[in-house]
């Protein structure tokens, strides 16, 4: 069998571990060949590929990023390019394609699958917002990095009796904010799922200082927004992929808080440091298991599926189900966090 593999969307720690796992499983267990397409769907649209054998993936387990490169492609281009992508796959004699990606990549995988291309998807994203799987690899690494950095901010905030707002990634889902906030003992956690009430944030900050606390740490997901009409908020518009362009919610909230509380406020944006570098052992293991099970599914003819973690087991879920909606933070999970904030 010949397997095609690509990594799409924003990169994420563990992508190289999956590529290695797919190549080793295909080569060693099935005697199959693997062709990697470069820079996500662009590699299929532009017919750019590289053969991947066991030697080519040596040393990839611990390396961050993706050796195949990644890119975002606008959904219209993908829809318009289905015939070209199919032609590339035919030219390389690909029997099954394994796209590794987040919401956008898996949605495109579903479209291709509906068009008759045999596909087995693998979910990745530091945002952990893919439905149908308990976790995506990359998330644990991002949370670990964010937690370590927030731990460090506690001591400097304390020394200066400041409010420190830490902006973490999380476009539509606040999982990183929720977990890193809980792990690092943040006093405030703001997520995209629930617009925040600025009056409430001001009250919380004033109360903490009034009862003698030395500082306040707030974790703010980049996609968090104020309740409409409660604070002037500059929007960043929409990019070419239809994504909201972020305009610095932590900075904007910080300015408002400084004005209304009289306290010194600083905003720190963690940004891409959350996505770079080597994956945690948890993510290496999850990525390796996803690669193994996806390659097995490809050989057993389970197409149109995505590998998923359910409890401790790896299962298959239909791609249609996985991309039907995003997995966002539930009110129950927010309530758990609120028991330790405020
Ligand atoms: O989708 C994952 C993600 O890390 C988001 O949390 C973040 O908004 C986005 O990627 C950033 O993407 P880019 O690399 O295009 O700046």
Describe the structure.
This protein starts with a strand and ends with a helix. The protein has 342 residues and is an alpha/beta fold. It has twelve helices and eleven strands. The protein has a seven-stranded mixed β-sheet, with helices on both faces. A four-stranded parallel β-sheet has the order 7-8-6-9, sandwiched between helices. It has two domains: 2-138 and 279-322, Rossmann fold; 139-276, Rossmann fold, CATH 3.40.50. It has helices spanning 15-30, 41-45, 75-80, 82-91, 103-114, 139-160, 175-183, 198-210, 249-261, 281-300, 319-322, 331-338; strands at residues 2-7, 33-37, 49-52, 96-101, 120-123, 163-168, 188-190, 216-221, 265-269, 305-310, 313-318. The structure holds 6-O-phosphono-beta-D-fructofuranose. 6-O-phosphono-beta-D-fructofuranose is lined by residues 10, 102, 125-127, 169-171, 222, 275.
Brief account:
With 342 residues, the protein is an alpha/beta fold. It has twelve helices and eleven strands.
Give the integer mean of the pLDDT values: 96
Largest sheet: 7 strands, mixed
Low-confidence stretches: none
Strand content: 15-25%
Q: What sort of overall outline do the alpha carbons produce when their principal axes are compared?
A: elongated
Could you tell me the CATH topology label of the largest domain.
Rossmann fold
Approximate helicity band: 40-55%
Tell me the count of domains: 2
Please trace the helix and strand order, writing H or E for each element: EHEHEHHEHEHEHEHEHEHEEHH
